Amino acid sequence: MSQQNNWPLWEVFVRSSRGLSHVHAGSLHAPDAQMAVRNARDLYTRRNEGVSLWVVKSTDIISSDPDEKDSFFESPQGKDYRHATYYKASEGVKHL
Amino acid sequence: MASTTPQEPGLSAVPSYEEEQSQARFDALINQDSRVEPRDWMPEPYRKTLTRQVSQHAHSEIIGMQPEANWISRAPSLKRKSILMAKVQDEAGHGLYLYSAAETLGTSRDELNDQLLTGRAKYSSIFNYPARSWADMGAIGWLVDGAAIANQVPLCRASYGPYGRAMVRICKEESFHQRQGFEILLALSRGTAAQKKMAQDAINRFYEPSLMMFGPPDDQSPNSQQSMAWKIKRFSNDELRQRFVGMIAEQVKVLGMTLPDPELRFDEEKKQWIHKDLNWDEFMEVIKGNGPVNSQRLERRREAHREGAWVREAASAYAAKQAQSEVA
Amino acid sequence: MKHDELDAALDSFGDALASATRVTPGNALRPEDIAVDGIAPGEDVAQYALTLGDDALILAQRLANWISRAPELEEDVALGNIALDVLGHARSFLTYAGLAWDKTEDDLAYWREEEEFTSLWIVEQPNGHFGVTIVRQLIVSIFQHLLYQKLATSQDETLAAIAAKAVKEVDYHRDHAIQWTIRLGQGTKESAEKMRHALEILWPYVDEMFRDEAVHQNLESIAVLPSTLREAWQEEISAVLAEAGLEIPATGQAMAYGRRGEHSEHLGYLLAEMQVLARKHPGASW
Questions:
Q1: Strand partners, A13
Q2: Which end of chain B has a smaller Cβ tally under 10 Å, C or N?
């Protein structure tokens, strides 16, 4: 009964409206890129949820290694002055 | 908090420094109610349990398409036909979202599909009952999807990121499913004598199986504790069953119908719903494969897979040819 | 859990998730709108709309049967989508036609006899294997795409509006059929042979699509004369088949007169199944 299905795995990214960025929505199997983007449209935008779709073969995605998280993402730590919430004195001032 | 991971054969008794660090990171994520993501380290038992739970859910969606697909061609109005088609299509989509989440845990869709087709995987036992009348479409939507929603909403906050996100998407779609089921029954309950009888009959058949969708009583569910500790289960079987019974006890009044449970009442002292004893023997038989239509459900999946093999092969062959000609 | 509790629970996941699933119904024309706001068409227009509705209804009924039986889950979703689109077209055309006779879409779908249906023979052919369905989709959706493109300029506002929405959807159906025709035609020896066979059994129903009938007369600028679509259809389908490595088969043409209520032996079974439950409860609401 076991049958190898050679349809690769694709990750799907949906941008739901102009001004927003593409968000990872999930994955699906398709034989090639053209079918993948069509399947993605059927699967992830049935309720008007998208204006733009990206599909990427899962094997083409390079990700940061979580074990290296400390050094890879260290720089922003401790630099709270980059966040508006750091600035208490101007809290309550209108339009700021 | 000390690790609750049982020792697996083959691992050394003393965890390495890296393993301890990884376990600590994992425990912290769970304790903070944060999310474990696909590339994070996770204990093997967590991965295994989650794979089984998510894939079982996926299989249930796919098999669950069948009793309803059975009534699309005979739907008694074009509007109802459209709605039913949309619902069944959603269920295929839900299965796909869940297989997608399960795949991030390291088991391929092929392997999961194989487990289903060879009878090694379980799926929700309620779908091993036949859909005998149009009213079953109502009962399935109201009771079966209702029970599923009660189970699923808490899972939107499951500790595993892809699973929780799939659940959010599913829950948004599922609420229409329950409403359409209820409205089917509502229309029948306001209809002819024959329609009312059809509705009550369907409710009578699906009530008990839907209560059993929450799984055995807590004192007979040994795995629940670990799943709750891992936050891939947020409420116990009995807790969920209670909430569900409370909801449908109210909703059935709107239908002017009754639930087939003379013992059903709210105990003011214990603050609990009392319902009849459920037939767990029948439940176990159905799970083992001896339900009314287990064999029909599986055979339909096998047939679709078998009949479609030439299509899948052709598509793969074409893709391979295209890839070759691109390189040339 | 109540629906507002559900909404609150879901909102707590933040915009990133919510935006990927935000529901915006849009403001497309729906059968319900036609039923309420539509102006009843004259007899000739109604009869014409009926033919368009019947084609779509029978085709939708056939396509829906693939749900839970498709070669891959992604195709269950795709074919389900197409079936839903086509059923939507059927509902709009039938609702509009029905206004002329004070009948609803359901009156027309469930309470007419076989000889009162005006659908083409090609849409009532059985699904067969996936290749047969794809070839039928190729033939019919290229036809419907050309048809609705022209119909979108009809002087009848309602027909034009229905066609304007339908043409976008049918464009997608056509694309789906083309993608699969190419893959199955070029894929393996087995798939090519199955496609060749599919073309052989469906080609006899092509001529009927392009025959101008009584129902098409006296509706200048309103209806689309099917014969005017043949050349473009032939050109398009020939190109697709060529790319797929398939040939137009040498077959006869069936003496098919579905527009006159004379159908193949398949329609009886299809209607029996479609109508059985509604007819068991005359006068009931669902």
A1: A24, A54
A2: C
Residue B1's pLDDT band (boundaries 50, 70, 90)?
Answer: very low
Taking the C-alpha atoms of residue C143 and residue A66, their distance in angstroms, rounded to an integer, is 54
DSSP code per residue over C193-253: HHHHHHHHHHGGGHHHHT---GGGTT-TTTS--GGGGHHHHHHHHHHHHHHTT--------
Residue boundaries of the structural domains of chain B: 24-323
Interchain proximity B109–A5, CB inside 8 Å: yes
Assign residue B215 a region: left if phi > 0, alpha if psi is -120 to 50, beta otherwise?
A: left
Q: Does pLDDT of C15 surpass 60?
A: no
Class of domain B24-323: mainly alpha
pLDDT tens-place string over residues A24-69: 988 999 999 999 999 999 888 877 666 789 999 999 988 876 654 5
**CA–CA distances in Å: residue B78 to residues B191, B287, C254:** 18, 36, 30
Domain definitions of chain A by residue range: 1-61
Asked if A48 has any chain B CB less than 8 Å from its own CB, the reply is no
Distance from CA of A93 to the nearest CA of B (A): 33
CA distance A22 to chain B (A): 16
Alpha carbons B201 and B183: distance in angstroms, whole number: 16
Q: Does B40 touch chain A (CB under 8 A)?
A: yes
- How distant is the alpha carbon of residue A83 from its chain centre? 23
**pLDDT for A78:** 56
- The amino acid sitting at C39 is I
Round to whole Å and give the CA distance between B301 and C71: 10
Q: Quick one: pLDDT band at residue A6, thresholds 50, 70, 90?
A: confident
CA distances from C52 to A44, B4, B24 (A): 30, 65, 66
Q: How many CB pairs under 8 A join A and B?
A: 64
Find the range with the poorest average confidence among B6-15, B310-319, C36-45: B6-15
Work out whether the CA dihedral B304, B308, B309, B315 comes out positive or negative: negative
Write the ipTM: 0.91
Structure tokens at B74: 């005979």
Alpha carbon distance, N-terminus to C-terminus of chain C:
27
Nearest to B232 by CA among B175, B151, B174, B146: B151
Write down the CATH superfamily of domain A1-61: Phenylacetic acid degradation B (3.10.20.520)
Asked if residues C248 and C199 have their Cβ atoms less than 8 Å apart, the reply is: yes
Q: Is C24 at the interface with chain A, CB within 8 A?
A: yes
**Antiparallel, parallel or unpaired: β B272-274 and A9-15:** unpaired
Tens of pLDDT along B26-50?
Answer: 999 999 999 999 888 999 999 999 9
Distance of CA C28 to the CA centre of its chain: 18
pLDDT tens sequence across C149-173:
999 999 999 999 999 999 999 999 9
Q: Which of residues 160-219 of B touch A (CB under 8 A)?
A: 162, 165-166, 169, 173
Strands (E), B243-324: 265-267, 272-274
Q: Which two tokens stand for residue C105?
A: 């879409």
For residue B99, the one-letter residue type is Y
Whether residue C78 has pLDDT greater than 80: yes
Tell if the CB–CB gap between B110 and A5 is shorter than 8 Å: yes
Q: Do the Cβ atoms of C67 and B75 come within 8 Å?
A: no
Residue from C13, C15, C21 to probe the interface with A (highest A Cβ count within 10 Å): C21
Residues recorded for chain A: 96
Q: Are strands B272-274 and B265-267 parallel, antiparallel or unpaired?
A: antiparallel
Percent of all residues in chain B with a pLDDT value above 90, rounded to a whole number: 81
**CB-based contact, B89 to chain A, within 8 Å:** yes
